[in-house]
Design brief:
By secondary structure, this protein is an alpha+beta fold. It is 35% helix and 14% strand.
Length: 474
């Protein structure tokens, strides 16, 4: 019996030593996967608490833990409202990661813990906050006439709207005809677009094209590319995701995309230093790094840092009346053009209507003629799925396969964000939610049902915000 007790005591001591050793290892050198998870949790909680006004524990449970990796269920967060910070730790102890709220520029992941550098990277003179009004949408937030009953009924059908829908807005002939919101969300809730941000970022670049400061054919885009093959990469190659740069977009592990978003305070660094794997224009590779490079390139072309920080607001959000839009920056001052734009569903719909109108708003051309056309034109290397302007023609399959009009094009984002634009039907459909790909929801289902419910002809097309003709621009 004594011998057995000695063995049990020895095993217990060994177990304690193993726990202490493992704890010390996790404390001193945590695996990068834990740091990615904590970085993701801190950033998402921060943005939703400070921008959307949601509760931290609700966001942690619903947005971070419920749809994600089981390890995320062991993450704990704390919110320091006095210093506008969020900290996330695995099991409340290990791999601490941080996010910082910076007012008009939202939240930023601070993986190195250098809050001073992150705070100083955002300008001290942010754009003035725009105020919404009660005028009829899109001039204001009013929706006017009662909703279209047929479409409203469709939006109430969970099978059509999709699981964990948070907002749907349907715009027909320039006016909102139906909208629906999930529990806890409303027309006033800013929601993340994830990769729909890429298309908005491309439009910001398009505004700069109209000013003559950048073009599709520009090359020699970064100083560090000057003396190698990357100097031949053109703006058009980046917009079409055909740069030839290597980039791993796998979200299931520590890959290029998760390293860029949650481990590197300078998001530009990784894609800017990526090697070439193909000649420009020869291979399609979907890459969030490409969108961040585009942000850095257009920011450098604006002229000065303060003007660059204000440019999305001054050139796009303010003219369109997107009063809720918050375009977030990384910890070194580059817009996260791949992923991080928050806006209400009404404001996302304004952007869609703007594209439907070929980049014209209130009679003013804000994008060069042909720019939206590029957003609707497929690239050869993507086999017709992706376009020349950071948008999709066939996410999950060609439009014809779903019985949709051939001129349909899409903005899509992680976890079920989508915007369908159908010029021939004068229709925009925005759908936002938290619907992981494993649930196999396809937004084409929603769009097809709406198209079947709206009249196909006999209604005049209406330009939102104005009946004036666009003035040609040089």
């Amino acid at each position: 019996m004594r011998f057995v007790l000695r063995i049990l005591k020895a095993l217990a001591l060994l177990l304690v030593l193993l726990v202490i050793t493992a704890g010390g290892w996790l404390f001193i050198r945590p695996p990068e996967l834990l740091s990615v998870g904590d970085g993701y949790a801190a950033k998402i909680v921060c943005s939703n608490v400070f921008i959307a006004g949601r509760g931290a524990e609700d966001v942690l449970h619903d947005d971070v833990q419920a749809p994600g990796n089981p390890l995320l269920r062991l993450v704990r967060v704390s919110v320091d409202r006095d210093n506008d910070r969020v900290t996330a730790r695995f099991m409340g102890l290990f791999a601490p990661s941080y996010a910082l709220y910076r007012g008009a520029f939202g939240c930023v992941s601070v993986p190195d813990g250098n809050f001073e550098a992150a705070a100083n990277a955002a300008p001290f003179d942010p754009p003035a906050k725009m105020q919404a009004n009660d005028a009829l949408w899109p001039e204001g937030e009013g929706t006017g006439n009662p909703a279209d009953g047929k479409i409203a009924a469709l939006l109430a059908d969970a099978g059509v709207a999709g699981p964990a829908m948070r907002a749907i807005v349907v715009v027909r002939n320039g006016r909102i005809v139906a909208e629906a919101y999930g529990p806890g969300f409303s027309a006033k809730t800013p929601l993340i677009g994830w990769s729909m941000t890429k298309t908005v970022n491309a439009a910001v670049l398009g505004r700069l094209m109209l000013d003559g400061k950048i073009s599709f054919d520009d090359d020699n885009l970064l100083a560090q590319w000057k003396n190698d093959a990357r100097a031949r990469i053109k703006v058009s190659d980046l917009l079409g995701m055909e740069s030839g740069l290597a980039f791993n977009e796998d979200y299931g592990d520590v890959a290029d995309v998760t390293r860029m978003l949650y481990l590197d305070p300078d998001m530009v660094s990784l894609p800017a230093n990526a090697p070439m794997e193909a000649a420009p224009g020869q291979r399609f590779r979907y890459s969030s790094g490409t969108a961040v490079l585009l942000s850095r390139i257009w920011m450098d072309r604006v002229g000065n840092a303060q003007a660059a920080f204000s440019y999305p607001h001054d050139a796009l959000f303010s003219p369109l009346g997107m009063t809720s839009a918050v375009f977030e920056l990384d910890a070194r001052g580059t817009f996260a053009g791949s992923s991080y734009l928050y806006a209400t569903a009404h404001d996302w719909a304004r952007f869609g209507q703007f594209l439907l109108q070929d980049g014209v708003w209130n009679g003013q051309r804000l994008l060069p003629e042909g720019f939206v056309g590029a957003m609707r034109t497929p690239t050869a290397a993507s086999n017709g799925r992706y376009t020349q302007g950071q948008a999709w023609l066939a996410p999950g399959g060609p439009s014809a396969a779903f019985g949709l009009p051939e001129d349909t094009f899409w903005l899509t984002g992680h976890d079920g964000q989508s915007m369908a634009i159908v010029p021939s039907a004068n229709l925009v459909v925005v759908r936002l939610g938290l619907t992981p790909i494993r649930l196999d929801y396809q937004p084409q289902t929603l769009l097809k049902a709406i198209l079947a419910a709206v009249p196909q002809s006999g209604e005049p097309k209406q330009q939102a915000g104005s009946q004036q003709k666009a003035q040609p621009q040089p």
